[in-house]
Amino acid sequence: MQKLLTPEEIAVGAGADGATHRLPSPRVFAGRAERLRQLAAGHAMHDFLLFAARLADAQQNALDHHRPASRPDPADLARCRRHGMPPLDAHGADLPAGWADVLATLTAAVVPHAPAGLQNAIAGLPDFPARRLDALARAILRAEEDLSNPVELALAPLIGASLQVLWTARALALQPADLPAGFEGGQCPACGSPPVASIVRIGDAGHGVRYAACSLCACEWHVTRIKCVPCQNTRGIAYQSLEGAAGTLHPAVKAETCPDCHASLKIVSMEKDPLVDAFADDLATLALDMLVDDSGFHRAGRSLFLFTP
Ligand SMILES: [Zn+2]
Ligand SMILES: [Zn+2]
Questions:
Q1: Are 183 and 14 in contact (CB under 8 A)?
Q2: What pLDDT, on a 0 to 100 scale, did the predictor assign at position 145?
Q3: pLDDT the model gives residue 104
Q4: Ligand 2 centroid to 212 CA: how many Å?
Q5: Ligand nearest 193 Cα, by number?
Q6: How far is the CA of 190 from the centre of ligand 1 (A)?
Q7: pTM of the model
Q8: Closest-CA residue to 300 (of 251, 238, 257)
Q9: Minimum-distance ligand to the CA of 211?
Q10: What is the spatial distance between Cα 171 and Cα 173, in angstroms, rounded to a whole number?
Q11: What does the alpha-carbon distance between residue 189 and residue 219 come to, in Å, rounded to a whole number?
Q12: Which of 230, 236, 273, 235 shows the shortest CA–CA distance to 254?
């Protein structure tokens, strides 16, 4: 449940730009794919980032051909706004009809480029019980997946990618005023999912405005700078970045660490690099997660392309 702010806090949080939330761009996956390709060049994880770019291309194609989602009932939207509930709730929601068709489309698009482990898992998909696939998708939406089976582990990013397409389509049917205003919580005000990372954008007034970027529906919500997104603490916040022999690597990406809840969430900054994408730049800086993990902080950002047993 998101924390309500006082009207004064809302006014301060809105800043000069007045925007507390941003709905996704209809080209979100294409932009992500382009950034992933750019980051892949010369990167130690080149093949992985290039595969992620191909998957993002397939997501954009699936989104472009997806029947536009309908806007939720106005009475439901009003009730959600009143109670600060996410109107596209991912946790208790039914799976959208035909979700497995999106999975099949993405799978067909990426299978020629997939690593061997994923190719084997995809080959077994026709025999995979539909009920088990549904259960996996629901567990991913609730962030409760318990994946030890190697086939399920291999398929999880494809299932996550399919759910991203469906929830982004649903978010595109919203209007900014549909979202509960004035929340600065740890979960997306549109769907209730955790962020993948946060992004500092250049506001209309030319100063940096920080948003948390949803891991599922690609909506962004305003969060104050120098404040822990998961627990809202403002004391003792510190930053870590990747240092190389020639200076800071990936200077547009820092990890914000909180001494209260020991969480770490990345900040990618358009002030440092106007082409950053929260999802892509997070994926390209997994070495930074290892660094903060070594110093006792756990990763708060959630990437649906990354699953660990
Ligand atoms: Zn969301
Ligand atoms: Zn915290």
A1: no
A2: 72
A3: 94
A4: 14
A5: 1
A6: 5
A7: 0.92
A8: 257
A9: 1
A10: 5
A11: 8
A12: 273
CA distance 45 to 48: 5
For the ranges 14-18, 30-34, 137-141, 244-248, the one whose mean pLDDT is highest: 30-34
| Burial class of residue 144, CB neighbours in 10 A (0-12, 13-18, 19+) | exposed
| pLDDT mean over 171-197 | 90
Q: Tell me the sheet residues that pair with 226.
A: none
Nearest ligand atom owner, CA of 218: 1
In degrees to the nearest 10, what's the CA dihedral of 78, 81, 87, 90? -150
How many angstroms is it from 184 CA to the middle of ligand 2? 13
What is the C-alpha separation between 109 and 103, in angstroms, rounded?
A: 10
Residues with Cβ within 5 Å of ion ligand 1? 188, 190-191, 193, 214, 216-217, 219
The ligand placed nearest to the CA atom of residue 298 is 2
At 13 the pLDDT is: 42
The closest ligand to the CA of 297 turns out to be: 2
Helix axis angle, 150-172 to 130-141, nearest 10°: 60
Query: Domains (ranges, CATH) in the chain?
Result: 7-24+181-299 (3.90.1670.10), 28-172 (3.90.1670.10)
Q: Comparing 10-24, 83-97, 178-192, which segment has the lowest mean pLDDT?
A: 10-24
Residue type, 144: E
Q: What is the pLDDT of residue 3?
A: 44
Whole-number average pLDDT of the chain: 90
Residues 266, 198: Cα–Cα separation, whole Å: 6
